Amino acid sequence: MEKDLVIGIDIGGQTTKCGIVDARGTVLSQTVIRSDSTEDVEEYISSLAETLYRLMADADAVERIRGIGVGVPNGNYYTGEVEDAVNLSWGRSGSIPFATMLEAHMNGIPVSLTNDANAAAMGEMTYGAARGMKNFIMITLGTGVGSGIVINGEVVYGHDGFAGELGHTCAVRHNGRPCNCGKSGCLETYASATGVARTAREWLEMTEEPSTLRSLDKITSKDVFEAAKEGDKLAIKIFEYTGRILGESFADFIEFSAPEAIVLFGGLARAKEFLVEPIQKAMDENVLPLWRGKVKLVFSQLKESDAAILGASALAWEL
Fold it and tell me: How far is CA 269 from CA 265, 272, 301, in A?
């Protein structure tokens, strides 16, 4: 039977999205499992493999899968390993030969992996907002802040496979928040979904400003977003603060690679109505005049689940 389908897998800090994709880039079938249900990588991969077999069986595609592409935090395209992925419950124990382990569970179906944000960039370049662009930066705003840098139509991997960790550039130089990576002041401690929730908790403690968020026991970024949509002034200020930090960082990124656009993707990007203006303002104030007004700020045109699935699946066509 012809091997005319591939599988794309997007692994995030909380959920893992899996999809079967055809050569036209159509996601034929997909499902979601938890990424954070265990700290044991073998248990996680076993559960993932079981899910993939069910997905293939339901789509009558068991004999048609050519390969599996995986987008995962700290995924090394060169080695197929996941290395020190601090945002994954099972990924904090050094180097994990993820591709080899998953291949073994999948009866030898070949597996290729890359950083999750690189996968999203590939999906956006092929099917979404970055179609036709050869120079852009993909920023994923989820549990953490990921990035994929595309220069001259190629994803930048660097000499070791880990280029483009822009979420761990320093956004707040003095007295910055501690990050899971061991540094302080990283962009993702402020501009991720967890960072927004952290800002909310800190501001509620530091001020007496009225807010509907005060009635909540455990605040999430979704709670802040819902409050902002209802006109909560503190919630709106939180997004303004987050947007300013993002815009200041984007100005630095622009000066590095002169992209045509910065593409935003991920759960937090749904709050674009509260983020666009402060991001754009901070970008314009901090970038060299040479690039002011030249770099577009665009949001993913793909379904949230599809961009990374499609990008990861692109790896599998090369296997």
Answer: 6, 5, 11
Domain 132-300 belongs in CATH node 3.40.50.300: no
Q: Which residue has the tokens 């493999």?
A: 49
CB neighbour list of residue 155: distance below 8 Å, 6 or more residues apart: 114, 118, 121, 122, 148, 149
Full-model pTM: 0.85
- Mean pLDDT across the chain, nearest whole number? 93
Given 3-state DSSP classes, what are the helix, strand and coil percentages for the chain, each rounded to the nearest 5? 40, 20, 40
DSSP of 235-274: HHHHHHHHHHHHHHHHHHHHHHH--SEEEEESGGGGGHHH
pLDDT tens, position by position, 282-313 = 999 999 999 999 999 999 988 766 777 898 99
CATH class of 5-121+305-317: alpha beta
Comparing C-alpha atoms, which of 109, 162, 159 is closest to residue 315? 109
Dist CA 187 CA 61 (whole Å) = 41
Question: Where in the chain are the domains?
Answer: 5-121+305-317, 132-300
